[in-house]
């Protein structure tokens, strides 16, 4: 399935795309509120500026994907792979990132307000300028991170 086919099906009311192969898909600025892409392959997908609020992306492979300026408000990214993804300036407010893999992801300027990061792996990430107000920072694993002006607020 390519990005155009997914958008056509979404416009027809289909929201369930479990285990879809969307590797390298062009979904820039796509409106995909509430979509279910659980266990889908979105490696290297272009999701810049996409609206994925309340989407189910649990256990999806988003390695090397471009999510810059995307809206992921309230999305489920439990156990997803976001290694080396560009998530700059994305809205991840109230997003569930429990157990997500964010190794070497570019997170500068992202909004993690009230996100669940329990068990998330953030090895080698750039947290410059992020908003990270969270009730549950327990079990967050951050290694080799750059924290310039990205200190969590209370």
Automatic annotation (TrEMBL):
Q: Name one Pfam family in it.
A: Pentapeptide
Q: Which InterPro entries match?
A: 5peptide_repeat (IPR001646), Pentapeptide-BTB/POZ_domain (IPR051082)
Superkingdom, taxonomy of origin: Bacteria
Show the SUPFAM superfamilies listed in the entry: Pentapeptide repeat-like
Full protein name: Pentapeptide repeat containing protein
């Amino acid at each position: 399935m390519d990005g155009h086919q997914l958008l056509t099906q979404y416009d027809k009311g289909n929201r369930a795309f479990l285990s879809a192969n969307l590797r390298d898909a062009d979904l820039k600025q796509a409106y995909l509120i509430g979509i279910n892409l659980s266990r889908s392959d979105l490696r290297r997908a272009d999701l810049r500026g996409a609206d994925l609020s309340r989407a189910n992306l649990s256990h999806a492979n988003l390695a090397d994907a471009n999510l810059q300026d995307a809206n992921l408000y309230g999305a489920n990214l439990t156990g997803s792979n976001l290694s080396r993804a560009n998530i700059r300036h994305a809205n991840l407010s109230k997003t569930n990132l429990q157990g997500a893999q964010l190794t070497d992801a570019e997170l500068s300027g992202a909004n993690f307000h009230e996100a669940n990061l329990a068990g998330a792996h953030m090895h080698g990430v750039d947290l410059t300028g992020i908003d990270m107000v969270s009730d549950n920072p327990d079990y967050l694993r951050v290694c080799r991170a750059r924290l310039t002006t990205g200190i969590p607020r209370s």
